[in-house]
Amino acid sequence: MEAAMGLMRRMPPRHSETTLSALLSLLPRHSSDLLSQVDLPLQVLSYVDSGKKFILCEYNRDADSYRSPWSNKYHPPLEDAPYPSSKLRQLEIEANDIFTVYCEQYYEGGISSVYMWEDDNEGFVACFLVKKDGSKTGQGRRGYLEEGTWDAIHVIEVGPEEEIIRYCLTSTIMLSLTTDDVSSGTFSLSGSIRRQMNMNLPVADGHLSNMGKMIEEMEGRLRNSLDQVYFGKTREMVCTLRPPSEVVQMRLPSS
Q1: CB within 8 Å of 208: residues ≥ 6 apart
Q2: pLDDT tens for each residue of 216-252
Q3: What crossing angle do the helices spanning 16-26 and 2-10 adopt, rounded to 10°?
Q4: Which GO terms describe its biological process (predicted)?
Q5: Residue 71 CB: number of other CB atoms within 10 A?
Q6: H helices of the chain, where?
Q7: Computed over its alpha carbons, how large is the radius of gyration of the chain?
Q8: 80, 73 Cβ separation under 8 angstroms
């Protein structure tokens, strides 16, 4: 199981579904563990009645149906499906409205969804999702990328209702991009990163405020890590293998 998870961490996100399918065939005894621990690129479904899109994931799925955060209905319809309590559903509605604004402010567009459900410890769990298609044909406003996808998954476990509540955040970012033009040539880069954060915060500030602060801080950390690990190392390798012309001229012996 440890080796399988190590392999999944090293595979590009675009190949994660194929890799997971192969591992499930090789390790059928660990299928439940693999399905619960492996994050796959997010999929999107358009709600037929309103035309609003929402994100599909394990957290809003029951059998082969997915619950919309906008209508609170399953698609396709499902009998005896689980739903959040009325109080939690109201919090879920507010979170979706706020996170839509957050998505527009930070991502310049994209699709967001928030799902909440009760847990067994008298608390609840919230899942905040963002999918941004940054390609020329998608939501990329600058037109630099032939293909580009950013998938953000933030799962927050909220403790029982007390004056000081413990929040446990697990965040995963999956990034994939491809360029294909005259200036940059054909270039592909993809990877994923996962981090955790625990905080004890006063309930008086409100759940949405507390969770929002944690997500904002975590996304800042993850963006910096991706910039240093993926883009920084890639830039270092490219400049080493193909140094800029001015560097080459400096290294040439003078005649």
Answers
A1: 91, 94, 95, 98
A2: 999 999 988 888 777 777 777 777 776 766 554 555 5
A3: 160
A4: actin cytoskeleton organization; barbed-end actin filament capping; cell morphogenesis
A5: 14
A6: 2-10, 16-26, 31-37, 86-107, 207-226, 233-241, 245-251
A7: 21
A8: no
Strands (E), 25-163: 43-46, 53-56, 61-62, 65-67, 74-75, 111-118, 124-133, 147-158
Handedness of CA 97, 98, 100, 105 (dihedral sign): positive
Rounded average pLDDT over 9-15 = 72
- CA-closest candidate to residue 134, choices 108, 100, 153, 157: 108
Model pTM?
A: 0.82
Angle between the N-to-C axes of helices 207-226 and 86-107, in degrees from 0 to 180, rounded to the nearest 10: 40
Which tokens belong to 33? 């563990």
User: Please, what is the Cα angle at 244 between 239 and 250, to 5 degrees?
Assistant: 115
Residues in the chain: 255
* Amino acid (one-letter) located at 18: T
The pLDDT, as a whole number, for residue 5 is 78
Tell me which residue has tokens 């009760």.
118
Q: Which two tokens stand for residue 45?
A: 């479904």
